Amino acid sequence: MVITSVIDNESRCKLAAEHGLSLHIALKNGINILFDTGKSELFASNSSLLGIDITNVDIAVISHGHYDHGGGLGHFLKLNSKAPVYIHSKAFQPHYSLKEEGLKYIGLDTSIQNSPRLIFCNGITTIHPEVIVFSDVEKKYQQPLGNRLLFGPQQDENDTFTDEQNLIITEGSNHILIAGCAHRGILNIIESATKIIGIPPTHVFAGMHLIKSGLAPEEERVSICSLAEQLMEYKETMFYTMHCTGMEQFCTLREKMNRQIEYLSSGKIIEL
User: Fold this and answer.
1) Three-class SS state of 151
2) 2-271 is classed in which CATH architecture?
3) Are 95 and 62 in contact (CB under 8 A)?
4) SS3 253
């Protein structure tokens, strides 16, 4: 399996970056998956520079209904004529972010919600014997503090992220968990995936939404160190993080977790 970061907030190569996420996953059986599309058409040009042919994508998955994960979906549907798009049934509901100037719409383009290419998911959906998407993650552990700034579907209600879904890919002895922003809490998502697989995932690729915690710097550091210790309890799991985790926050995780965690910036390729 080869996992390529097509879009991330950070780039350390010739690729452009944007506030968004898109991963290309090439399985050994020949299946190509696109997980999220970033916020614009940039995923397409970055893919071309990486030697990835978007027309050859067999399956697309949208993690949740925020523009920085599905903003490029309309462009993807134009470029690729065959891939079904697995998206949660509630992904097109309104989503908002609280800014200094007030609430800002951060949802998807609703003009494409009637596309026949979209497959609406709930709970556990088996796409292929090796590929599963799941939602309905139980909220046992803490969720990101930054969620307090996110609202929907009603403007006066904090978002509960019922539309967030995650991806599990099994290939040989590798069990890969991929999460977009982990708004439901990365520890909760890992626990749910473990119940589905039967064992903890061997690799986790996830934005963890540690940005905009609202905590004082030292309080935030304590909180992130606590999360790192809990992640390290998964001793056989390798973590790759990106996007909404935040670079400063990643550095704090790295101090505790050492080589058990890496940052996946635009253009980085992981072969498993």
Assistant:
1) strand
2) 4-Layer Sandwich (3.60)
3) no
4) helix
Q: Which residues pair with 178 in a beta bridge?
A: 167, 205
Q: Which pair of structure tokens corresponds to residue 52?
A: 């990835």
Please say if the pLDDT value at position 186 is more than 90: yes
In order, the DSSP letters of 54-89 are GGG--EEE--SS-HHHHTTHHHHHHH-SS--EEEET
What CA–CA distance (Å, rounded) separates 21 from 37? 7
In whole angstroms, how large is the CA radius of gyration of the chain? Answer: 17
- Give per-residue pLDDT as tens, 174-185: 999 999 999 999
pLDDT at 209 over 90: yes
User: Smallest Cα–Cα separation from 88: which of 64, 113, 111?
Assistant: 64
Domain positions in the chain: 2-271
Both structure tokens of 53: 């042919």
Dump pLDDT digits (tens) for 28-55. Answer: 999 999 999 999 999 999 999 999 999 9
pLDDT at 13 over 90: no
**120 C-beta neighbours (distance < 10 Å), count:** 14
